[in-house]
Each structure stands twice: as structure tokens, then as C-alpha cells.
Amino acid sequence: MAASSRAQVLSLYRSLLKESRAFPSYNYRTYALRRVRDAFRENRSVKDPQALELLLNKARDSLAIIQRQVLLTPAEQEHGHSRHTIQRSVLSRSLSLSLSLPFPSLLLLSPGSL
């Protein structure tokens, strides 16, 4: 794997962990962190450049979903919406798009495999 790909993967991994830590709910936070780590471990042996690019794109999509969800949660709570309902709907939509893979499209490589 090229150095730039390694740097991209590590940067994306760190960003996913950072954003996952921002979930206000303990349960969602720990779930997201576990799924990010598990997805990286699962895909640490991927060497195919096309598969790598696919995984990186799906991870970027997941990062965007997590960032939106973290931002929406406090705002929706102020307006009387159930935080649990909103998070659950976003997660279930993401999971259905992820082709039955770990946490919303988190098909990443493990930083240890690079």
C-alpha cells in the first residue's frame, strides 16, 4: 500500500474514532467505537486497490453520517424529538446501505495492517 493510502486510512480511522466519541449517549458512543475498531480489524488484510478504494469511500460516507448524527442529536432533543428514535432511524438506514457489514458502511482497514 502506498504511503498516501496509509495516511488516508489512518486519518479516516482517527476521524471516525474522534466523531464516535462525540455521541452524547454512552450506549451509542461505545457501540460506534467498537464497530469502527472491529471493521478496521476485519479488513486489515485487504490488498486489492479497487477494494481498498471502495472501503475508503464507504468509510467516508459513514464518517459523514456520524458527523450529522452527532450534530442533530442535541438540536432534535431541544425540539422535543426522541434522541433514541432519531439515532435508531439513521443507524438502521445506514446499516441497510452497508450491505450487511459492520456499523454503517465502516469497511475500513486496520491501521495495524498497513
What do these coordinates show?
With 114 residues, the chain is mostly helical. It has one domain. The protein contains four helices and no strands.
Rounded to an integer, what's the Rg over CA atoms? 14 Å
Major sheet attributes: none
**How far apart lie the N and C ends?**
7 Å
Name the shape in a single word.
elongated
Mean pLDDT: 76
Q: Short summary of the structure?
A:
The chain is mainly alpha-helical. It has one domain (3-113).
Outline the fold blueprint:
Layout: H1 3-21, H2 26-42, H3 49-78, H4 83-97
GO biological process, one term: iron-sulfur cluster assembly
Protein name: LYR motif containing 4
Domain Complex 1 LYR protein: 7-64
Descriptive terms for the model:
114 residues; single chain; Complex1_LYR_dom; mainly alpha
